Amino acid sequence: MIDNHIPVNYSNRTRRYVDRLIARAIGACGVSVLLVMMLLFVWLLWVVMPLFATPSMQAGPLQPALSARPAVALGVNQGWGWRIDSQGEGRFFPLNGASPEPTLQLARGPLISAATADNSSLLLLQPDGNFQLVQPDFSAADAMPRWKFPLGDGAFDGGSGGFTLAALASSGDKRWLAALSDGQHIRLLRLQAGRPMQSDMLASGPVSQLLLSPNGTLLFASSDRSLRVWQINGQRVTLRDTIPLTHPPRQIALLSGGRSLLLADETGISQWFDIADEQGVHLHRIRDFNGARAQQALITEPQRRVFATLSGSGELRMFASKREGAFFSHALGEGVRQAQFAPLGDGLLIERADGWQYWRIDNPWPDISLRSLWQKVWYENYPQPDWVWQSTAVDDPYQAKFSLVPMVAGTLKAAALAMLFATPLALAAAIYTAWFMSPTLRRWIKPAMEMMGALPSVVVGLFASLWLAPQIAVRLSGVLLLPVALAATLLLCGPLLKRLPSRWRQRLDAPGREVWLLVPLLLLVSALCLWLTPLSDAALWGKPLAERLPGGYEQRNLLIAALAMGFALVPLIFTLAEDAIFSVPAALGQGSLALGATAWQTLSRVILPSAASGIFAALMIGFGRAVGETMIVLMATGNTPVTEGGLFHGVRALSANIAVEMPEAAAGSAHYRILFLSALVLLVFTLVLNTLAEVVRQSLRRRYGQHERQG
Questions:
Q1: Fewest CB atoms within 10 Å of the CB: 21, 197, 241, 572?
Q2: Closest to 603 (Cα-Cα) out of 401, 420, 431
C-alpha cells in the first residue's frame, strides 16, 4: 500500500505552538462530548430511578384512644381522621395530634356494621333492621369537617330485623343503592332524597358476604361454596353468574373502580374481573397473588388498585393489580383492630385498643415494575394478557397501561423496513456514481444527492402524510409490483443491449452514456406500474386492493413511514458510501484491470472489500438515524401503539411517542418519568449500536488493510 504521508518539519516556533494548541483543543472537545453524553445519561437515570424505588413508611406518634368502644367505620380525608363506634357515635380528629372534635350521636342504639360508597357515604345498620345514611363532609369554607345526613337524620326501616350484612353504592346525584341480607335473603333498597324508598327481594340462598360495585350495577354475594353476581340495570335485576368455589371465602373486597374483585380463602388471594366472550360477559378468575393469604384484615386503597393484608402479628403486606406478589412489607406491631388507607394512598390510619396512629407512606408508583413495562400484563376486562400502551383513560385515569414493547417494536419495524428500502438504492447509486459514472456527470449528481439530505424531515413527513399516503392507498397494487418490475427491467437491459444496432451500442459504450437509456426506460416502467396496474386491478375486482385486504388497510401505516423515511435515508447512506468507495486508491483498481479482471470483478473483489469499513459505517449511521427519527414516523403513521400490526397498519415509535405525549404529561408523574425512560432506552440502544458498529468497522478495516499491505 502506498504511504501518502509526507513528513514536514517546521522551523517556525509559532506554527508548532499553534499546532499543539489546536491538537489539545480538539482533544478537549472530544472529551467534552463524552462528558455531555455521560451527563445526559446520568440525568435520565436520575429522572427514571424513582419509578423503581422501594416504598417506605414513617410512623407518627401513638395518640390516646378516642373511645373504649371499638370502631365499626374508620376513614381519612384532608388531614382529618374520623371514626364511628359500635354505639353510633361519630368523631373527627386531626391527624397532627391536636384535640379531637366533640362526639356526635349519629345513630340511636348499637350498630352491627357500616357499609361505605366511594369513601363518602356510610350506611349504619342496627340490629332491628333500621339503618341511617351519613356522610363525613370536608367541603366547608372554614375547613372544619361536619357530619351530613343526606336523607334526613331519622332512621329508615329496613323492613325486618335480623339483617347482619350491608352494602352501599352511589348510583347518581343524591341517589343510593343499598343491599341488606340476613344470611339467607337479599333486599335491594333504592334511596333518593325527597322520594319514598323502593325495595326488591332477591331469592339468593346462603349469603356470608355482600358487596356492591361503586356505580351500583353489580351485586356480589358469597357463601361457603359459591359466588353469585347479579346485574342491576335500573329496576331490572338478573342473576348473571353462579360460580362454584372449592374453598369458602374468608374475605371479599373490590379494588378501586369496582371492576376487580378480590377473593381471599385458605389457599391465597385471587383477582376476578369480567371478560366478554361468545357466551357474553362473565366473571373470571384471572390471577393468584404469590405469597398472599387471607389475614386478619384486607384493606384496599380508595383511588388506586392497591391492597394490603394485615396479619394478627401486625405485618402489613402490600400488593398491586399489575404485580405477581407483594412489593412491600412492614411490621406495624400487634393489636391492630382497624386500618384504613388515605385517599391518595400516602398514609395509613390504624387503631388499637390503647390508641390510634397515622403512618405516612411514600409509595407514589406501586404498579410500575420492569415486568409491567416489558412483559405481558392481564389488564381489567381484557380477554388475555397483552402489551398495551394507554397512558390515559376517560373514566378511570389511574389504570394507565405503560408497556414499552409496542413502541420498541414500532421503532425497530419502521427502521428495519426503511433500511430495507434505502440500502439497495443508496448503495447501488453510490457504486454506480463512484465506479461507473463519468467524472462530468458525477460532479452534478453528487452535490444534488447531498442537497437532498438537507431536506427537513418535517417536510418529508408532511409530504408523506398529505400526498403520498392517499396516492398509495389508490395505487397499492402498482406500488407492490413496482420493485419486481424495476428489478426485472434492469436484469433484462443487459441482454437487450446486445441486440441493439452496432451504431447504438458504440454510442452507449462510453462511460455514463447508458444513463440516457436506463432512466427513460425505468421511468416508463414505473409509470405503467403505477397507472396501468391499479386500473386493471379495479376493473377485475371492482375496487382497489387496499379495500380488499382481509386484515384491513390504514391509510397512514408502516409502509408509508418506511417509504418516507427510506427516502430521507438515501442521501445520507449514499454520501458516506460513495465517499468510501471513491476514496479507495486508484492504483488498486487500475492494477486489477491491468491484470485482466473485468470492471465488475475489480469492483466486487478489490474496491468493495477495501471500502467495506466505510460502507458498513454508512449503513450503521443510517440505521441510527432511522431509529431516532421523529417527525416522519409521527406524521406518516397512524401513531398506533400496537405490537401485532403488519405492513398496512399503523405503528408508533419511541421518539414519536415522546414528542406526542410529553407536552401532556404532568411533571414528576409516572407518565412523565416513563417517557424519560423511553428516551433512556433510545440513548442506550444508540450507544450500543454505535459501539458495535465501530468494533465491526475497525475489524473490517484491519482485515482488508492487511490484505492490501500483503498485496
A1: 21
A2: 431
Distances (CA, A) of 145 to 9, 78, 285, 637: 90, 9, 41, 53
Q: Which amino acid is at 273?
A: F
Cell of 436: 461507473
Task: Find, among 147, 151, 145, the residue nearest to 168 by Cα.
Answer: 151
pLDDT at residue 46 is higher than 90: yes
Grid cell 356522610 in the structure block, residue: 135
- Residues spanned by the domain of 130: 56-366
Q: Average model confidence (pLDDT) for the chain? A: 85
Q: How far is CA 193 from the centre of its chain?
A: 44
Q: Does 457 share its domain with 536? A: no
The pLDDT of residue 82 is 92
List pLDDT tens digits, range 388-446.
Answer: 998 875 444 457 889 999 999 999 999 999 999 999 999 988 998 888 877 888 888 88
What is the residue whose three cell numbers read 414500532?
Answer: 410
Are 125 and 180 in contact by the 8 Å Cβ rule? The answer is yes
Q: In the chain, how many domains are there?
A: 3
Length of the chain (residues) = 711
Contact between 665 and 672 under an 8 Å Cβ cutoff? The reply is yes
- Reported as a single tens digit per residue, the pLDDT across 457-492 is 899 999 998 999 888 888 888 888 888 888 888 778
Please report which confidence band the pLDDT of residue 348 belongs to, taking 50, 70 and 90 as the band edges.
very high
pLDDT at 1 over 60: no
Residue-level pLDDT at 538: 75
Amino acid in position 122: L
* CA dist., res. 387 & res. 371, Å (int): 11
Strand order in the sheet with 236-244: 209-212, 218-222, 226-233, 236-244
254 and 167 within one domain: yes
Q: Is residue 690 part of a domain?
A: yes
Residue after which a domain boundary falls, among 341, 366, 391: 366
Q: Give just the sign of the alpha carbon dihedral 156, 159, 160, 161.
A: negative
